[in-house]
Amino acid sequence: MTWGLDESVAIRRYRRLLRLYPREFREINGVEMEAAFLALLRRDGHRRGLWGRASCWLGAAWDVVRTAVPMRIKRMRTGRGGDSMMGTILTDVRFAVRSWARRPLFALTAITTLALGIGFTAAVFTITNGMLFAPFPYEDPDELVVILDANPELGWDDTDISPANAWDWRERSRTLEDLAVHYEDALNLVGDGPPELVNAVRVTPNMLHLLGRSPLLGRDFAPDEVGEGNDRVVILTDGFWNRRFGRDLETVGRTLLLDGIAHTVIGVLPEDFVFLDERPDLFLPLPVNPQEAERDGHYAMAVARLSDGSTAADAEQELTRIAAQLEVEYPETNEGWTVDV
Fold first, then answer.
1. CB 214 within 8 A of CB 273
2. HSE-CB for 214 with a 13 A CA cutoff
3. How many CB atoms lie within 10 A of CB 308?
4. CB 259 within 8 A of CB 187
5. What letter does residue 162 receive in the DSSP assignment?
6. How far is the C-alpha of 310 from the C-alpha of 155, rounded, in Å?
7. Residue 120 has pLDDT above 60, yes or no
8. Which of 54-58, 79-83, 124-128, 307-311 has the highest mean pLDDT?
9. Residue (of 40, 35, 63) closest to 53 by Cα position
10. Please, which contacts does 150-156 make with residues 24 or more away whose CB atoms are closer than 8 Å?
11. Could you tell me the residue ranges of all domains in the chain?
């Protein structure tokens, strides 16, 4: 885990932590919580260096687990989301960070409790892929599955995948019709309005096609729009298009300056488009071609569409065999790694 040395990575990791909360809670409070966390991370990092950033992370993680799990349990029991707790949450985050910074020995002791909380939460979130995709407006959502990495020897279940491994799964599998890779990012936008930190999702060019969706305006990513130098195109979500450009029909073709690099807007997604459990402003291609990625880098997620007649169980059985093959072929990076579908 990063301790805040790179703010874009820190925000991406914190968003994953916020997934413990119900989606409607995140939609209302997520942006404010991210801003509050980033401010605390900057302050404590400036004052106390690495230990300050570590304390901030531990305090935030403990607070999320402590508050999110009861909300999930209540939701499961009642079928409804809880009331907004924004004021309490933000107060608790600040209190937790200050308390942990003053009592570092307590912070170390609490790691054990945090691990237990995360383990419990993982059990709460064990659901079928069909339930995961059913609410989303995708083509044949019951054919979609999420594929995650696992390493039982390290005690890691359902963790981020290596894009290089995922592309080997895609090339060798017969139970998968297609597979796409994605991960969250945070980019600084300047020009055409006030500067802001935008929520982005990096995807392989086939992602929208796999989901059975296409842009409302403009076009989808081309197959060769991936990798360094070929990734300077973006597709906007409807919400961002409306907020930043007022739904201007001439937006396609305009240039956005993201992290100091010019990107061309090639498309705008329909208003009803949602992307899994995330809230992106825009989509960009992966900056590294999966075939060329470092195989030991586990930082992305994979979504796949089952081939005709295949089930999730079939896919997991086949991909487990492929993972075993990759372990033999790449022992230095793949020892102990398998898959969960």
1. no
2. 5
3. 6
4. yes
5. P
6. 29
7. no
8. 307-311
9. 40
10. 150/337, 150/338, 150/339, 150/340, 151/336, 151/337, 151/338, 152/336, 152/338, 153/335, 153/336, 154/336
11. 7-124, 141-292
- The pLDDT tens digits for 244-263 are 999 999 999 999 999 999 99
332 φ, ψ (degrees, to nearest 5): -70, -30
What global pTM score does this model have?
0.64
Helix (H) or strand (E) holding 183: strand 176-190
Q: Is 305 helix (H, G, I), strand (E, B) or coil?
A: strand
Instruction: Say yes or no to pLDDT of 323 above 90.
Output: yes
Whether the CB-CB separation of 234 and 226 falls below 8 Å is answered with: no
Alpha carbon separation from 25 to 248, 259, 277 (Å, rounded)? 30, 29, 12
What's the CA gap between 153 and 120, in Å, rounded?
20
- For residue range 59-105, list pLDDT tens digits in order: 777 777 777 767 766 555 454 444 444 444 444 444 444 444 444 54
Residues 124, 69: contact at Cβ < 8 Å? yes
| Residues 327, 336: Cα–Cα separation, whole Å | 7
Is the CB of residue 153 less than 8 Å from the CB of residue 336?
Answer: yes
Whether 222 contacts 338, CB under 8 Å: no
